[in-house]
Design brief:
Aldehyde Oxidoreductase, domain 3; 3 helices
């Protein structure tokens, strides 16, 4: 698990993809890329989300997620989770989950499960910042 200040850059994502391709034991890679939406909440548009995290706990919980996925999906070879902290503007990337497996079916299923576990378990909080500079805390969805 890696926490990144601000949005995840295309270069960071490309590096993860390149690294995944270096493992010749894998034939399937599944990526989830989460982007900040410009939601409309009560007539206000979301301009950005400010992510806060309990960093030590995030690392521990992410390791538990990784171990759980590896125990449930015997064909999975690698899992990478990157999450933003700080301000990420609408349209920017805040989450990457990448799973590499011998075959595509396990890569896809394991990636989907890992994303759900990240949303359920990681102590990362989101404050929506609106175009009018007001803000409110948001529930994970």
């Amino acid at each position: 698990m890696i926490l990144i200040d601000g949005p995840l850059s295309p270069d960071t994502i490309a590096g993860i993809i390149e690294k995944a391709g270096n493992n010749t034991e894998t034939g399937g890679h599944s990526l989830f890329i989460g982007e900040v939406r410009r939601d409309n909440v009560g007539g206000r548009s979301v301009r950005a989300i400010e992510y806060s995290a309990y960093e030590e706990m995030v690392v521990g919980e992410a390791d538990k997620i990784r171990k759980l996925i590896l125990s449930e999906f015997d064909d999975v070879k690698a899992i990478r989770i990157l999450h933003s902290k700080g301000v990420v503007n609408a349209g920017e990337i805040s989450l990457l989950v990448a799973v590499s497996a011998g075959h595509r079916h396990q890569a896809i299923s394991a990636c989907a499960k890992a994303v759900e576990l990240v949303k359920e378990r990681l102590p990362v909080w989101k404050k929506e910042i609106f175009d009018d500079n007001s803000d409110q805390w948001k529930q994970n969805d």
